[in-house]
């Protein structure tokens, strides 16, 4: 998939990039870490927030419980993140990078656009099952506009990246209608993934077998 575009162009908050050996990314922060140890502390805070939200839910999680799980003072959390909402947003921005990198690697050998749709869906499902950060954001209801800095902030980025992939790799005819169709496809694919995770394996396979062709049919008019 295309390189992740930063959704924070023009944001007034400070941003930090993680240290070498960790996932690079940018989060809006109150204060810029000046040492690798401080950058690792930011990652530890995000990991603790993921675990806390997965176990207790977004509403029950608190900055003090997140600090305790991260084994740091609560003031250290507030040094970088003003509130819990900002923490969850930072997790989603880290997720965007991880998801984009995983999809890019898997699509490198894909030659058919329908397979590209399936690989993208399967990667989302796999990360939802195995990555606590993914589960944390899903369970917190980040799709709620109240938890986004701007409407559609995260879904729009994923849709834009996939639209670029389909036009550059598979010859899709770019247009406003095509971009809207990609957004619809991404949204339906995520809903399909969430539904399959709630079902037993046999029923999940039935739902996926019915849902995948629906996603393909949406995109077919725009591809050669």
From TrEMBL:
The HTH tetR-type domain, residue ranges: 39-99
Origin superkingdom: Bacteria
InterPro entries in alphabetical order: DNA-bd_HTH_TetR-type_CS, Homeodomain-like_sf, HTH-type_TetR-like_transc_reg, HTH_TetR, TetR_C_15
Protein name in the entry: TetR/AcrR family transcriptional regulator
Keyword Chaperone: no
Originating species: Kribbella lupini
DNA-binding region: 62-81
Key words of the record: DNA-binding
């Amino acid at each position: 998939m295309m390189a992740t575009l930063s959704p924070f162009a023009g944001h007034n908050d400070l941003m930090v990039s993680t240290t070498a050996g960790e996932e690079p990314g940018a989060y809006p922060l109150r204060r810029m870490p000046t040492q690798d140890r401080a950058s690792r502390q930011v990652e530890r805070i995000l990991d603790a927030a993921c675990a806390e939200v997965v176990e207790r839910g977004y509403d029950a999680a608190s900055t003090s419980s997140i600090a305790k799980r991260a084994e740091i003072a609560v003031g250290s959390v507030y040094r970088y993140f003003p509130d819990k909402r900002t923490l969850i947003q930072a997790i989603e921005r880290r997720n965007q990078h991880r998801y984009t990198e995983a999809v890019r690697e898997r699509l490198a050998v894909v030659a058919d656009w329908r397979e590209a749709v399936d690989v993208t869906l399967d990667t989302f499902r796999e990360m939802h099952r195995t990555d606590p950060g993914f589960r944390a954001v899903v369970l917190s209801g980040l799709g709620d506009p109240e938890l986004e800095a701007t409407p559609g902030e995260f879904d729009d980025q994923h849709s834009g990246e996939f639209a670029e992939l389909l036009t550059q790799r598979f010859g899709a005819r770019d247009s406003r209608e095509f971009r809207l169709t990609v957004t619809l496809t991404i949204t339906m694919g995520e809903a399909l993934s969430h539904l399959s995770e709630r079902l037993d394996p046999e029923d999940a396979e039935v739902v996926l077998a019915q849902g995948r062709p629906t996603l393909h049919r949406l995109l077919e008019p725009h591809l050669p």
